Structure formats: C-alpha cells, structure tokens
Amino acid sequence: MKESIQIVLNELETQSNLEKSRKVDVTAEDRMLAITKETGEMLNMILRLNNVKNMLEIGTSTGYSTIWCAEAISENLGEIITIEQNPNKIKRAKENFEKAKLSDGISIKEGLAIEILSELNTQKKYQGFFDFVLIDADKENIVQYFDLIFPMVSINGIIVTDNMLYPEKYREDMKKFSNYLKTNPRLRTVTSPIGNGEEITIKIK
C-alpha cells in the first residue's frame, strides 16, 4: 500500500477510535460512523479478487471506507461514485482523498441518497453498470436504497451492507432487511460477523 494512503487511513482510524471511546466531543451529525478496519480490509480484498472497476457507495462520511476501496480500484483504473448529504463531511472527505492521492478516481455526489439514486436509476448508462456497491447510510430507507440500486448492479456484482449486527438498536430492522433479500430469487446473500456485521449479496442471472 502506498505511504500516502496508509497515513490517511491511520489518521482516520485514530479519529474513529477516539469518537467511539467518547474521548473527543463531536456533534452527532459530524461523527465519522466509519466501518471497522477489518471491514475495510475485507472490502479491499473483495474488490481485488473480482477486479472491480465501477463502484457505487452510499454514505461517504469522511472517506475512510472510500479510501479502502479506491486503493484497490485504482489499480484497475476504475472509478467510485460516492453519495453524501453532509457538506462538512464532503469537505473533509475531499481533503482526505487529496492527501491519499486518490482524488482522480472518486466522484462525490452531494444530496439525498434517495434522490440521487432515483436519478441514476433512470439513466441507461447505469443499468448493470456497477460491479460493487457499499451501502452505509441511514437504515430507515435501506430497502428503498437496495431496490433502486439492484438494477444498476452487474450480473455477479456484489452489494455489501454495513451495520447488520451493530449498533444493536438497528439489529431487528437489519434482520428484516436480510430476510427481505432472501425472498429475491435473483440474488444470494449471507450475513457476515466481520466488523459491525456485513450483508454480502451477489446478483445472479
């Protein structure tokens, strides 16, 4: 891994750990709420194993998960489209991408995920376009996000959804989401205990 990328990942891991330990005072809307390092490593490996080029991320935050993914995708000259509503987080993410020297392969779309996904969904270019999707956003709209995303995923494309097991307050809703996925004959899905719990879903023919 390039030194510039490792430095930024280390900085963001330190910040995330401080937030989780409550050793720093951060407003609720500005918390990183990042994936764990173990999840980042898993995502990076999945992307490499599948030679992913085109990725969609719902929930940029300050860019920690995006950087883990971009480190792998950049070797395939691929691109990430990532969605974030919070302007302050977008500013911080852009700074982190610059420091990691990964800005060229990352495109940030600012706004409500539902609206942006609905717009992308209507464009012919994006039908079956994304090889990989990471969903790490609000849980209230998780089913709507998935339904909008699914037509834009390529056959054998992968969708990973974070927070299936933690925080525990979301666990019941995320279990219902997993059960909802299992009713779809066009996919295979499994819940992994890695990190905060990851739903790993593959689109099949």
How many DSSP-defined strands? Answer: 7
Shape estimate: globular
Strand order, largest beta sheet: 3-2-1-4-5-7-6
Taken in chain order, the helices and strands follow as HHEHEHEHEHEHEE
CATH class: Alpha Beta
Q: Kindly provide the radius of gyration, computed on alpha-carbon positions and rounded to a whole number of angstroms.
A: 16 Å
Number of domains: 1
CATH superfamily: Vaccinia Virus protein VP39
Strand fraction equals 15-25%
Report helical residue fraction.
40-55%
The number of helical runs is 7
Oligomeric description of these chains: single chain
Mean of the pLDDT scores?
A: 95
The biggest sheet amounts to: 7 strands, mixed
CATH architecture tag: 3-Layer(aba) Sandwich
Account of the protein in words:
- The structure is a single chain.
- By secondary structure, the protein is of the alpha/beta class.
- The chain has a single domain, classed as Vaccinia Virus protein VP39 (Rossmann fold), CATH 3.40.50.
- The chain has 7 helices and 7 strands; from the N terminus they run H-H-E-H-E-H-E-H-E-H-E-H-E-E.
- A 7-stranded mixed β-sheet has the order 3-2-1-4-5-7-6, sandwiched between helices.
- Strand 1, helix 3 (64-73) and strand 2 form a beta-alpha-beta unit.
- Helix 1 runs antiparallel to helix 3, helix 2 runs parallel beside helix 3 (64-73) and helix 5 (113-121) runs parallel beside helix 6 (142-149).
- The chain is globular and about 45 Å long.
- The protein starts with a helix and ends with a strand.
- The model has no long low-confidence stretch (mean pLDDT 95).
